[in-house]
From TrEMBL:
Pfam family, one: Radical_SAM
Lineage top rank: taxon: Bacteria
UniProt-recorded name of the protein: Heme chaperone HemW
Sorted UniProt keywords: Iron, Iron-sulfur, Metal-binding, S-adenosyl-L-methionine
PANTHER family from the UniProt entry: COPROPORPHYRINIGEN III OXIDASE (PTHR13932), RADICAL S-ADENOSYL METHIONINE DOMAIN-CONTAINING PROTEIN 1, MITOCHONDRIAL (PTHR13932:SF5)
PROSITE patterns reported for this sequence: RADICAL_SAM
Alphabetized SUPFAM superfamilies for the sequence: Radical SAM enzymes
Gene3D superfamilies for the chain: Aldolase class I (3.20.20.70)
Protein's organism: Streptomyces plumbiresistens
């Protein structure tokens, strides 16, 4: 117990910065599934039996972008081909219809269209997607609490009328990637098309059109970012008054372009926690409340409903190439896991032929289901809920971690079985979350990243760029 307490205290003292924990197990732990061993309908039928109140989050992935950010490791491809957009939309709608039974058997809580840059699609594409959803779940606009889409500032500025049409179709939240309000930082990150003026115009359009929830983000650790430039971005964004703000530590994963080339010298040091402190101070002073370790919202207006519900254990059905589905049985992807236009074409063909199957994923045991909630949901968690999903197998281990967290001031105990993060716990939530990882998940994560690092290291050694290990997982960065 003392060792665990001291270990956690040491991580905090050293200012260790793990990657943001937004899923468990992470994608790095997914492995190929035996061919034909898993059928999506069977997975979802088994998942249904594990929930007393059947609910569902729906995620639709649109992989297309005009340009690729250097730090991005998401499933994206560069294309502005309208014929491809048409074919992809048709395939996505086919997938929605193929999952009608899954959707109809649950209360649909959220719809999130992510990417990529979904706002590159035209009005006709969104109308078709929403009409298809209506054919499967007729009253979705009245039952769904959040309809969200990801967008870049330049895509909104380029088509404000199209953005307004999205609001008429039921859009309640848009995630606009800002990252920084310092032009040089934006350019060096590969976002030169989204300059400060474009960002301000996009925010203005969202406000003028009456978007209920404008969600924006800032990133700590860009190359050349200083405490002064960070304060500028925070102060200016607070003035723009979006309803939701997220502040992330920059993590350049080994499968991102910056990491593969070693050409981007970003910051990942303990001093970044001082930038976290500044952002929290400013946004709370402007009337925001902290919803998560990275997110602030205007009470009654802002927030990220799908993420909160997913953390609480509500399953997520992911459709589209590269999308992940989270269930209580299996977390999985269908089709390709490596982005390319060839793979997108294969997805379209498979969707049309109704042959998409889970191809890679992670099988969840009762113990791993309990760990998922512990990793993601320590903001406010009733341990009694986990007794039904495998907590008994790891009771002593969990108790030791929680005791260490409490002694380091990271959690409150609220009643006999409820735990909540303290303000300090919000700050170091990702450090605490990592301590709930199972040995198997840690091993799979390490194996995956070591494989990528080996490839990248060979390339960087040829260029004379050294590699150093950081953090408490397999993540590394160039020196």
């Amino acid at each position: 117990m003392n060792n665990l307490r001291n270990e956690l205290a040491q991580y905090i003292e050293q200012g260790v910065i793990p990657p943001y924990q937004y899923s468990y197990p992470p994608r790095s732990t997914y492995r190929p599934l035996d061919e034909g061993a898993w059928d999506a309908r069977e997975v979802w039928a088994r998942d249904l039996s594990n929930h007393q109140v059947p609910e569902l989050n729906l995620y639709l992935h649109v992989p297309f972008c005009r340009y690729k950010c250097g730090f991005c490791n998401l499933y994206t491809v560069i294309s502005t081909d309208q014929e491809l957009y048409d074919a992809y939309t048709d395939a996505l709608c086919t997938q929605i219809r193929d999952h009608a039974e899954v959707i109809q058997a649950r209360r649909l809580r959220t719809v999130y269209i992510g990417g990529g840059t979904p706002s590159l699609l035209g009005t006709r594409h969104f109308e078709k997607i929403f009409d298809t959803l209506g054919s499967v779940y007729p009253n979705w606009r009245s039952t769904v609490e959040e309809v969200a889409v990801e967008a870049t500032p330049d895509s909104i500025v380029a088509d404000p009328e199209g953005f307004g049409r999205l609001l008429q179709l039921g859009l309640t939240r848009a995630n606009i990637g800002i990252q920084s309000l310092v032009p040089q930082e934006i350019r060096e990150a590969g976002r030169g098309q989204a300059g400060e003026d474009t960002i301000r115009r996009a925010v203005g359009i969202a406000h003028e059109r009456g978007l209920p929830d404008l969600s924006t983000d800032l990133i700590m650790g860009f190359a050349g970012q200083t405490p002064e430039s960070w304060r500028h971005s925070v102060d200016e964004l607070a003035k723009l008054a979006p309803t939701t703000v997220s502040t992330y530590f920059l993590t350049v994963r080994p499968d991102a372009w910056f990491s593969r080339t070693g050409s981007y010298q970003y910051m990942w040091k303990p001093e970044l926690y001082e930038r976290y402190d500044y952002a929290r101070e400013v946004f709370t002073a402007h009337g925001y409340v902290q919803e998560g370790s990275v997110r602030y919202k205007k009470p009654g207006r802002g927030g990220y409903v799908q993420k909160v519900l997913t953390f609480h254990g509500v399953p997520l059905l992911g459709l589209g190439v590269g999308a992940r589905s989270y269930t209580s049985v299996l977390d999985y992807m269908t089709g390709s896991v490596k982005p390319s236009l060839t793979e997108v074409a294969q997805y379209i063909d498979q969707a049309k032929a109704h042959t998409l199957r889970p191809t890679t994923g992670f099988v969840l045991t009762p113990e791993e289901r309990a760990r998922k909630r512990l990793v993601l949901d320590t903001f406010d968690l009733d341990l009694a809920e986990l007794d039904r999903s495998g907590l008994d197998a790891i009771t002593d281990e969990v108790a030791a971690v929680l005791d260490a967290a409490e002694s380091n001031g990271l959690v409150h105990r609220v009643g006999p079985g409820r735990i909540q993060l303290t303000p300090k716990g919000f700050k170091y939530r990702d450090v605490l979350s990592w301590m709930f990882y199972s040995g198997r998940v840690k091993d799979l994560d390490r194996e995956y990243y070591e494989g990528l690092h080996e490839v990248n290291a060979r390339a960087r050694r040829n260029m004379g760029t050294p590699v150093r290990i950081t953090g408490i997982t397999g993540a590394r960065e160039t020196a």
